[in-house]
Every structure is written in structure tokens, then in C-alpha cells.
Design a protein that fits this description.
The complex is a heterotrimer. By secondary structure, chain A is an all-alpha fold. In chain A, 74% of the residues lie in helices and 2% in strands. Chain A contains 26 helices and 2 strands. The longest helix of chain B is centred in the middle third of the chain and has 34 residues. Chain B is globular and about 70 Å long. In chain C, 81% of the residues lie in helices and 0% in strands. The radius of gyration of chain C is 17 Å and the shape is elongated. The chains are: A mainly alpha, B mainly alpha, C mainly alpha. At the A-B interface, helix 5, helix 6 and helix 25 of A face helix 8, helix 13, helix 15, helix 18 and helix 19 of B.
Chain lengths: 621, 487, 99
């Protein structure tokens, strides 16, 4: 009974918080909007930890229908909840990380004129994500999936006066919509073949599908996940999404938005098992995305953009693991990534907050603006280092264990192993490069803070330190997670670990050499290889392609609406009416008012009648 | 004769219309019109009670015997008719409430009730003769509403609307006449009754022609792709309340006609032409969306979204499946609520500033937060956000098409992407972007209580239908399962 | 022989009247044309009635004569009135009522 209430509470509490916030926190009270939201986050965290504990201690799967939604001849879906190992493990991470980010945001956004509005959107984001995790059917998942898309639109465009923020928000929504259509079509196909999208039914019956259809459904779901989880063809929105306030980026990258796609894939693994072609596509796209994004991340200057590409790269790892069929590795990496990426973003936010006066109103900072901050911001430096070590996959930090699992799952294939090790080295390189450039060393080309820096306050420090602890110790979650998911307990394969460690150290060494031994290297190579830098900045041309495509569609719309509708078709139909009038005028010429003519017409008519009569008379014979 | 409960549903607005036209003062006329439309809404809901309880599937009323040529005054209220009548009554009430401040003469208020009467007649009639009479009568008040109380280009728009739709009506009349006459020739019975003409053996080898005539007649109203271009102009030039009713109720006449006349009489043809009908629907969806994307006038934009959304109705019908037909019926109601709401909102903007261009506004979110909320909410329903009503209708229509012909569903779902592409940039420009140099945003006052009440009603319905469409779907189910192609 | 002549006479009269009506522009001449046509038809009626020995035909002929007389009277009166107002004998020039 308790578990059911807790499961219901996970969705109901944020909804209530939103309602309360919307109804009561107006005017003067808007500046306290964070109170109900943080309280709700805490309660949801407690609920989800309780559920996780229950599931871990052997609670049977909870899959309950709450109330019917659409029912046509009993073939449709109802709203319901599903609590199993997968949902509850991701849920616990999402709830805890979101709580910390909420606390952080309450300090970061202090004094913003839209403070109340921000927390409403922010919590709606959280609600959508939580609802997505506990859904028991694809259709219900789709509702929250779009809810996530909508709140990301509202939050990325939160500073709505900024042109770039509006464009980024629209781009995010549009690209996600493109992916969602794939998801929607998959839902349609499931409804067509199963009559429902309940997970248990779909997974039970998936084997009976014609193989082509199973692959089609799986492919469409993967397409949808590509948009949300920023995988190759549809990743273009994520780097731009940095236009939102930093807590939004943290939430989006660690807990709410991008994890949704990976979660969907992990959730659908029983279905994907019947579509091996899609699995190999997932491996290919995951690896391609991971590698390319790591390269791009190594060339970026904006702090948040580096982290954005790093997210794309890490998500590629998760998709790669899923493509290899290893749910445990993907979910484990999802969870540890949630911890350390949230930590890294909050630290980056801390840097931007600290440099506020030197940035002259800009909402993001590049490595040019930072530099040598370790003396002034020791806590951030240390915390960022922990995040970086975790991301790079150095023991004993959490990333090491999860990345190790991912690598293990693909190690049997030589090319995959080589490329993923290369990516791992790249990850290590870009994140240490960022840490070194921002916090350590003294370089003539960096501006550095021109005004006194703001040290983070308590409400910013507590989340950062908690996340640092989680990132450092998250590796311990592997065993219980494996037990919950019913996978064999992860044991370090020393062969793989050695390779992984080697590549991470290689990346660190390269970063040290590029940033510390030759302090100006990061500026020098840009002068020599400007074309390469530009290509990286545009995702090797893919951004140009998508922009061009969007422009082409816009022009297409203009052509249809203007050249065809307004200039051709509309005048044509109007000209039909005009030609009727013209015909009438022509007919008028026949009656000019001459009595003689009328008489002549009369005779002609009479003659015709007589002729017809005669003809009929003749034809009688 | 009995009490003639259903007759009152169209007689009451007709009488009210006549009375209001004769009232001595404008203010009196306004109050009377509002009260009358509220009363009619209550009456319509009262009549629909047995349908909700599922105690009866339809209420039939045939007070008079058949007269010459088998014409017989027959009304019936089933789930589909009821939902459309209730929608019409609701939209009339809301539109009148929304134009409360317009200093229009008695004729304005009277025309709206006359329009309501004709629309009720269309949705209730089961006799094709009466159906046609009401069908054509509906044109007249709308002609005056556009022509007399519209904006600058109203005269041309009114003539265009009238001629275009009258030409459509002519096709419809020819089709109906040939149907009835041919039926008489084959069976020897004169009848205009929809139920008796269903599956009529009359048309025989002439069926394609009659089908085409009827389809054109109904298609002009829907509007189906090449016959749509009366709509943007009429919508743009009509007063806000007129556009709301035009989009909300009048367009439904076409879909209703297809459901009530075309499908029952020509099921074979419909099945045979399914891919073509579906293709037309897809063209409607994409064409409307593309045109909406290029518009610079808010009202024109909403008008083209209408074309796109009615495409989903057509898609559901073309699928000829139970699910698709229910989706189409539901989409009619959804479109009435969301597009009606958007037209009212644009009208409120126009009332304040006498501008409609997207570029004329900016940063309204700061100036008018509750306006922004309502606009955003109804826009999201219109672009099909799950959880709101628009999504359910689109999903069911698409599902129906996916069941009968998946590639068309795939193409139609591109409409969902385009919806985001036309809806959100306009929203961003009007509400988020800083006001440009020629902006009139400073004239915009936030919504007052009356307007908030009107829009809250719509929003609550939108949310209710999105979260529990079951109630309405149960009403629409019988018609749909009757028309669906047996599997 | 007489039969043929009579028929030719009727046809000739009718065509003459029609030609007057179509070709001549003066209203009075057109009226005369009309009268000629009426009389041609009447002659045919009388002849047929005599040939069949049917008194109904003769009665009809009398009615036609009466109607023609009335028509002539009204027609001439109208023409005179028009002539007084417009001082114009030709029909073509009078087009007050043309749209």
C-alpha cells in the first residue's frame, strides 16, 4: 500500500506544488516560489528513494492502471503507473539531482524579474520527466515526453528578450518535434498491431510481429530518442540550448531532458531485441556521435558549449551500450553521468556567477573570460576536478565504473573497441583542457576576471558539494543497480580497465601538454587551422545543412503561400466570377432595344420549333 | 404532433433573432441576445441528457406526414448531432459575449441567432430537403455578418464567400436532386430521408458523378484543398465573433454532410476512392500548414491552420475505420474550441489596437500576462500538444489512417512538425520579442474579467477533452461504428 | 387550283407582314405588318373551317377579327402617344427603357 501511495505521490506532489505555486505565489510572494518547489522535490526524492529501497528488497513490479484515457472498444490506453527496477533507479537519480539543482537555482536566479515564472517552468520540467519515468504505456510516456519538450522550449527561451534565446528555444522544440513524430508513428503502429501501448503487452507480443514491422517500430522509437537524447542527425538543438539560464542547462543535461531518450531506449530493450538491424544502427550512431562530439568539444571555447558537446558524447556512449544490448551499462552510465554532469554544469554556472561583473551582461562565459580562478574559487576548482576525473573515467570516481561497463560491452569487437577507447581519451582530453584553462595557470591571452569575483553562496555550495560526493562515490551504486536490474554484478575486467585507464591518462597527458606546457597552444592552432575550427563549430557542416534545410522549407512555404496561393490560384478563382460577368455583358449585346431584331429572333425561334416538330413527325414514319 | 422538443432547438434561436431585430435599443438587443443564446445552450444540454446516460442512442422527431415528392420534416438528435449543436450553442454564446463591447446595431445580434438557428437545423435534419434548406439559409446571416460588420475588405470578402459557397451549394443541390430522382426511378419511392437513401440502388452507374457533385458541395465548406480559398479572406475580414462561428461551426457542416450523406449513400465509392480522399486530406494538412507558415497576419495564419486541421478530419473520414471516424468527429469539436478560441483572442487584440499583423506587436508577455497565457494555451491545443484536446483528435485520425493505409499517416504526421513551425514563431514574435518601432503593443490592455471568463471556459473544455475524451467519444461512437468499413 | 392559290396568298401575306415587322423601322409600318400577319392567319382559319364545315372555326375567326381591331386601336394609340412625346417615328430611337 505504501509503495502505491509513494508511486502516486511521485507524480501528484509536483502537480500539487505547481498548482499551489500558480495560485498563491503572486506579486511579493513570487520571490518565494522556490519554497513549494523545493519541498515537492524533497518529497519526491524521499518517495523515489523509498521505492528504490523497496524494489531493491524484492518488491514485485507495480503496474497499475489509474483511470481510462481513450478507450475505443477496449483497445486503448489508460493512465497508469509502472514502478520497476529501471524506472525507479533512474527516478531516484533524477529526483535527487533535480532537488539539488532546484536549491542551486534558487540562489542563481535570485533577483531575476521572472523568478516566479522560472520556478513554475522549472518544476513543470521536473514533473514531466518524473511522469515520463513512471508511465506504464508508450502513449502516456509520449504525453510527458512532449511535456518535457514544451518546458524546454519555455526554459531555453526564458530570457525572451534575447533573439538568440528565442531562436534556440524554437529550434529545440522543432527538432524535438521532428523526433516526436517518429515516436508518434511508432505508437500508431503499436496501436495498430497490439491495440494498446501498455509496456507489458507490447513486450509480450513483440515476438509475434512480422520482422519488418518490429524493425520499423524500433527504428521509429530510436528516431524519437535521437532527438531527445541529441544523437547524430538530430543533435543540433542541444548546443544552442545553452541560451537558457545555467540551472536549466544543468537540469536538461543531467536529469530531465536528454536522459529521456536513453530511458526510452532502455525501456524498449525487449522490443529492440527483435530488431537486430536497429541495434547495429544504434551502435554505429552512438559511436559516431560520441567520437565526433568529443572532437568538437575539444575545440570549443564557451564553457557551456564544451559541456554541451560533452553531454552529446556521453549520451553516445549510452546509446552504444544499449546497441550492444547492455542495459545495465547504459543505465549505470546514465546515473553517474547525471551526477557528474550536473556537478560540472553547476560549477560552470558558479564560474559565470562569479564572473558576473566582468561579463558585462553576457549569460555565458568562454575560456577567454576565465583563467587562473583556482586561487579565488577553491571550492569550485576542487569540485570541478572531481567532476572532470569522474567524466574522464579515472578510478575511483563513479565515471570509471560505468564507462568501464560500457567499454566491456563492446570490447568483443575490435573496431568498436578502438573507436570507443579513442573517444574515452578524447573525453578525458576535453574535460581536463577545460579545467586547466579555466582554473589553472597564467596565460597572457586570457582576460581573466576584471572585477572582483563573487564567491558562491551557501545555497550554491551545498548542491555542488553534495554532487561532488555523489560523483566521487557513485561507483558504489553499480552492485545494487545490477541486482535490481537482474544483471550479473559488475566485476572489473582488468584487461578492459587497463585500456580505459590508459586512454584516460593519455587524454590527461595531452591536455596537460596543450594547456600547461604550451600555454598559448589553444590560441595558436586556431590561427593556423581556422577552417578546421569553423568546421568543428558547425558540427562538420551538419549545422549548415540543417539551417539550409530550415531555410528551404521557409522559402517553400513562401512560394506556396505567395507565388501559388496569392498570385495564381486565388486570382484564378476570382477570375471565374469575372468571366461570368463578362459572359453576361456579351449576352447583353443581343438585346439592344431594337424591336425589329426581337421580332426576327422570335421568328427564328418559331421556325426552329416548327422544324423540330416536323423532324419528329417525319421520324414517326 | 407532440411537444416537438427538437424543433424548438432551431425555432428558439430563429424566434429570438426575429424578436431582437425588432427591439428598440441596441443595449437591449445585446442583453437579449446573450440571454437567449445562454438559454439555448442550456436547452441543448438538457436535450442531450438521455444521450449522456446512454438511455437512448438518438431522439427522433417526425411530426408531419410526408408531403409531395416524399419530403418529410424529420429531425433527429444523436451523439454527433448533439455535440455539434452544443458546440454551436456554446460558440454563439461565447462569441456574443466576446463582442459585448462592440457598438453594433440590433441586426448584428439578430444575425448571430439566425445563424445559430440555421446551423442547428443543418445538424438536426434527417431529411435531405430540409437539410439543404438549412444549409443554404446559413449562408445568409453569415453574408451579412461579414459584409456589414467586417473590417476594411469586408464587401469583397462577403461576396466571395457567398458566391463560392453558393456555387458549392448548387453542386450539392444537383447531386441531391439526381440522387432522389434516380432513387425514385429505380425503387418507385419518393423519399428524401437520409436513412432510406443509405445504400440506395438508385445511382447505379451514375454514382461517380453524383458522388463528385456531393463531394464538391460538401468539400467547399470543409474546405478541401483546391476549393479552400474563400476561407482565408472570409475569416480575415469577418468580425471576431463571426470568424469564431465560421470556423467553429460552419466548417463543420461540410464534414457533417460527408459523414451523414456521402458515406452512408456511397460506401462503395468511398472505399474505392480511399487513397485519393486520404491524399486530399494529406494535401490539406500540409498545404494549410505551409501557407500558415508564410503568413504575416495573425488572423490569416489562424485561418490557414483551420485548413490544416480540417485536413485531419478528412483524414479520419478517409480511413473509413471506426477509430478514424471517431477521431474525425472529435477533431471537429476540438477544432471548434481551439480555432474558435484563437479567433476570439485575435479579435480581442484587434479590438484594442485595430491591427492584426504579427509585426505590429511585441513583448506582450510583459504587458499582458494573462493574454499570453490564454493564447499560449489555446495555441498549444491547436498544435496538438498531448494532454490537450487537439492531440486526441489528431491521434485517432492518424491511427485510423495507420490502420488502413500507413504511408498516408506517415505523411500526415509531418503536419505535426509544421504545426510547431508555424505556431511558435508567431507566438514568440508577438509575445516574447521586444516591440519593434511600429509596434502598437503599448495600447494593449490585459484581459478583463469578462474576457477571462470566456477564455477560461474554452480552456477548461480543452483540458477536459484532452484528459478524458471518453465522455465525448462515447457520444460519437454509434455514428462512427455505423459508418466504418467492416473489417 | 383555287386551293393552292389561297394557300399561296396566305403564305405571301404572312411573309409580307413578317418582312414589314423585321425590316421596316417605323412603328406604324410594323403595326401594319402585324395586322397583315394576323389577317393571313385568319384567312387560313376561315378556309379550314369552311373546308371542314365547322362553325367553331368561323367563330374563332370572328374573335380574331375583334381582337385584331382592339389591338390595332391600342397600338395606334400607343404609337401616337409615343410620337407626341418623342417626335420620332422610328422605333430604334426610342430606348428609354433599355438597361
Amino acid at each position: 500500500m505504501m509503495t502505491q501511495y509513494a508511486a502516486l505521490g511521485v507524480v501528484a506532489i509536483p502537480a500539487c506544488a505547481l498548482l499551489v505555486g500558480n495560485l498563491f505565489f503572486h506579486g511579493r510572494w513570487a520571490s518565494r516560489m522556490h519554497l513549494p518547489m523545493i519541498l515537492s522535490c524533497l518529497l519526491v526524492s524521499l518517495c523515489s528513494l523509498f521505492l528504490a529501497w523497496e524494489v531493491h528488497s524484492g518488491m514485485p513490479l507495480l503496474d497499475a492502471a489509474l483511470r481510462p484515457w481513450i478507450s475505443l472498444n477496449g483497445c486503448m490506453d489508460s493512465f497508469g503507473l509502472r514502478i520497476d527496477a529501471l524506472s525507479v533507479s533512474v527516478l531516484a537519480m533524477v529526483a535527487v539531482v533535480s532537488t539539488l539543482i532546484h536549491v542551486y537555482a534558487s540562489a542563481y536566479m535570485q533577483g531575476d524579474p521572472g523568478y516566479g515564472r522560472f520556478f513554475l517552468y522549472f518544476h513543470f520540467f521536473f514533473l514531466s520527466m518524473v511522469g515520463l519515468l513512471v508511465s506504464n504505456s508508450y502513449l502516456q510516456l509520449y504525453i510527458f515526453w512532449e511535456g518535457v519538450g514544451l518546458s524546454s522550449f519555455l526554459l531555453i527561451g526564458f530570457w525572451r528578450h534575447k533573439e538568440s534565446a528565442r531562436a534556440a528555444a524554437w529550434k529545440a522544440f522543432l527538432v524535438n518535434r521532428i523526433g516526436d513524430v517518429g515516436f508518434l508513428l511508432a505508437v500508431l503502429l503499436m496501436l495498430r498491431y497490439f491495440g494498446t501501448t501498455r509496456f507489458e503487452v507490447v513486450f509480450r507480443l513483440a515476438g509475434e510481429l512480422p520482422p519488418g514491422i518490429a524493425a520499423l517500430i524500433a527504428g521509429l522509437l530510436f528516431w524519437g530518442a535521437c532527438a531527445k537524447s541529441a544523437q547524430f542527425p538530430l543533435h543540433v538543438w542541444l548546443p544552442d540550448a545553452m541560451e537558457g539560464p545555467t540551472p536549466v542547462s544543468a537540469l536538461m543535461h543531467a536529469a530531465t531532458m536528454v536522459t529521456a531518450g536513453v530511458f526510452l531506449l532502455a525501456r524498449s530493450m525487449p522490443l529492440f531485441a527483435h530488431a537486430p538491424q536497429v541495434m547495429s544502427a544504434m551502435r554505429a550512431i552512438g559511436l559516431l556521435t560520441a567520437l565526433a562530439a568529443a572532437i568538437v568539444a575539444a575545440t570549443q571555447k564557451d564553457l557551456k558549449r564544451i559541456l554541451a558537446y560533452s553531454t552529446i558524447s556521453q549520451l553516445g556512449f549510452m546509446v552504444l551500450a544499449l546497441g550492444a544490448g547492455n542495459v545495465l551499462a547504459a543505465v549505470f552510465h546514465l546515473i553517474t553521468h547525471g551526477f557528474f554532469k550536473a556537478l560540472l554544469f553547476l560549477c560552470a554556472g558558479g564560474v559565470i556567477f562569479a564572473l558576473h561583473d566582468s561579463l558585462h551582461g553576457a549569460t555565458s562565459a568562454s575560456v577567454d573570460d576565465a583563467g587562473g580562478l583556482s586561487g579565488r574559487l577553491p571550492i569550485l576548482t576542487g569540485a570541478f576536478l572531481i567532476g572532470a576525473l569522474s567524466l574522464a573515467g579515472l578510478p575511483p570516481f563513479s565515471g570509471f565504473f560505468s564507462k568501464d561497463l560500457v567499454l566491456e560491452s563492446v570490447f568483443s569487437s575490435r573496431p568498436l573497441a578502438v573507436l570507443s577507447l579513442l573517444t574515452a581519451a578524447g573525453s578525458s582530453f576535453y574535460i581536463f583542457r577545460m579545467w586547466l584553462l579555466a582554473f589553472l595557470g597564467d596565460r597572457s591571452l586570457q582576460r581573466g576576471p576584471s572585477s572582483p569575483v563573487h564567491a558562491p553562496g551557501l545555497r550554491m555550495k551545498v548542491p555542488i558539494l553534495s554532487l561532488a560526493v555523489l560523483s566521487a562515490a557513485g561507483g558504489m551504486l553499480g552492485a545494487p543497480l545490477a541486482a535490481m536490474l537482474g544483471a550479473p554484478a559488475p566485476s572489473l575486467d582488468l584487461h578492459v580497465s587497463a585500456w580505459a585507464l590508459g586512454s584516460a591518462l593519455l587524454g590527461f597527458g595531452a591536455a596537460w601538454r596543450a594547456c600547461m606546457s604550451r600555454p598559448d597552444f589553444d590560441w595558436d592552432w586556431r590561427k593556423r587551422a581556422g577552417a578546421f575550427e569553423r568546421a568543428c563549430g558547425r558540427d562538420f557542416g551538419w549545422q549548415d545543412f540543417t539551417d539550409g534545410f530550415a531555410r528551404a522549407m521557409k522559402e517553400c512555404a513562401d512560394v506556396i503561400a505567395d507565388a501559388w496561393e496569392n498570385r495564381r490560384w486565388d486570382p484564378f478563382t476570382e477570375s471565374l466570377a469575372d468571366s461570368c460577368v463578362g459572359l453576361g455583358e456579351q449576352a447583353c449585346a443581343l438585346c439592344r432595344g431594337r424591336v425589329n431584331e426581337y421580332a426576327a429572333w422570335m421568328f427564328l425561334g418559331t421556325l426552329l420549333l416548327i422544324f423540330a416538330w416536323v423532324l419528329r413527325w417525319v421520324s414517326c414514319f | 404532433m407532440g411537444v416537438m422538443l427538437l424543433t424548438w432547438l432551431w425555432c428558439a434561436p430563429a424566434l429570438a433573432s426575429a424578436l431582437i431585430a425588432a427591439l428598440p435599443s441596441r443595449r437591449l438587443a445585446r442583453a437579449a441576445a446573450l440571454m437567449a443564446s445562454a438559454g439555448i445552450l442550456a436547452y441543448a444540454l438538457y436535450l442531450g441528457r438521455p444521450l449522456f446516460d446512454q438511455t437512448s442512442l438518438a431522439i427522433l422527431e417526425m411530426p408531419f406526414p410526408a408531403s409531395a415528392f416524399g419530403i418529410r420534416y424529420t429531425l433527429a438528435l444523436d451523439g454527433l448531432s448533439f455535440s455539434l449543436c452544443a458546440l454551436t450553442a456554446l460558440l454563439t454564446l461565447l462569441s456574443l459575449a466576446a463582442s459585448w463591447k462592440s457598438e453594433s446595431s440590433q441586426g448584428f445580434w439578430s444575425c448571430f441567432l439566425a445563424l445559430e438557428a440555421a446551423l442547428m437545423g443543418v445538424f438536426l435534419s434527417r431529411d435531405l430537403f430540409w437539410f439543404y434548406v438549412f444549409w443554404d439559409l446559413a449562408l445568409v446571416p453569415m453574408f451579412f455578418i461579414i459584409g456589414l460588420w467586417g473590417s476594411e475588405g469586408r464587401r469583397k470578402a462577403a461576396y466571395k464567400f457567398f458566391l463560392y459557397t453558393a456555387a458549392g451549394s448548387l453542386c450539392l443541390l444537383l447531386g441531391l436532386l439526381s440522387l432522389v430522382v434516380l432513387h425514385q426511378r429505380v425503387t418507385g419511392i419518393w423519399t428524401w430521408d437520409m436513412a432510406e437513401l443509405a445504400l440506395s440502388p438508385g445511382p447505379g452507374r451514375h454514382a461517380p458523378w453524383i458522388f463528385a457533385l456531393l463531394f464538391i458541395g460538401f468539400g467547399v465548406k470543409v474546405p478541401v484543398f483546391p476549393l479552400h480559398n474563400w476561407l482565408p479572406e472570409a475569416h480575415t475580414e469577418a468580425p471576431a465573433a463571426g470568424s469564431a462561428l465560421l470556423a467553429g461551426s460552419m466548417l463543420k457542416m461540410g464534414v457533417f454532410g460527408i459523414l451523414r450523406v456521402l458515406l452512408p449513400v456511397f460506401p462503395m465509392q468511398c472505399w474505392r476512392y480511399l487513397p485519393w480522399l486520404g491524399t486530399l486530406a494529406v494535401i490539406n494538412i500540409l498545404y494549410g500548414a505551409f501557407c500558415a507558415m508564410a503568413q504575416k497576419d495573425l488572423k490569416r495564419l489562424v485561418a490557414f491552420t483551420s485548413v490544416s486541421h480540417m485536413g485531419f478530419c478528412l483524414l479520419g473520414i478517409a480511413s473509413m475505420t471506426n477509430v478514424g471516424l471517431q477521431g474525425a468527429s472529435l477533431q471537429m469539436i476540438n477544432h471548434g474550441l481551439s480555432t474558435g478560441g484563437l479567433f476570439l483572442l485575435v479579435g480581442m487584440l484587434y479590438e484594442r489596437t485595430h491591427r492584426r499583423g504579427i509585426e505590429d506587436f511585441g513583448a506582450l508577455a510583459e504587458k499582458a500576462p494573462s493574454f499570453t497565457f490564454f493564447f499560449g494555451f489555446i495555441l498549444l491545443s491547436s498544435i496538438g500538444l498531448p494532454g490537450l484536446n487537439g492531440f486526441v483528435g489528431e491521434l485517432l485520425s492518424l491511427l485510423g489512417m495507420a490502420q488502413s493505409y500507413f504511408p498516408l499517416a506517415l505523411l500526415a504526421s509531418m503536419g505535426a512538425i509544421l504545426a510547431a513551425a508555424y505556431g511558435l514563431p508567431a507566438f514568440q514574435k508577438v509575445f516574447w520579442a521586444p516591440a519593434g518601432p511600429g509596434s502598437v503593443s503599448e495600447k494593449v490592455m490585459d484581459l478583463d474579467l469578462r474576457e477571462q471568463l470566456i477564455l477560461s471556459t474554452l480552456c477548461l473544455l480543452i483540458l477536459w477533452l484532452g484528459l478524458s475524451p471518453g465522455t465525448l467519444l462515447r457520444l460519437l461512437q454509434p455514428t462512427a461504428s455505423l459508418l466504418a468499413r467492416p473489417v | 387550283m383555287i386551293e393552292l392559290l389561297l394557300r399561296l396568298l396566305c403564305a405571301g401575306l404572312f411573309i409580307l407582314g413578317a418582312a414589314f415587322l423585321v425590316r421596316r423601322r417605323e412603328l406604324l409600318a410594323m403595326l401594319i405588318g402585324l395586322e397583315l400577319m394576323i389577317n393571313a392567319a385568319n384567312l387560313m382559319i376561315v378556309r379550314t373551317a369552311l373546308a371542314r364545315g365547322d362553325a367553331h372555326g368561323l367563330a374563332a375567326a370572328l374573335i380574331v377579327i375583334a381582337a385584331a381591331a382592339a389591338e390595332a386601336a391600342v397600338g395606334v394609340a400607343l404609337i401616337l402617344a409615343l410620337y407626341r412625346d418623342f417626335a420620332e417615328p422610328e422605333a430604334e430611337e426610342i430606348r428609354e427603357l433599355q438597361g
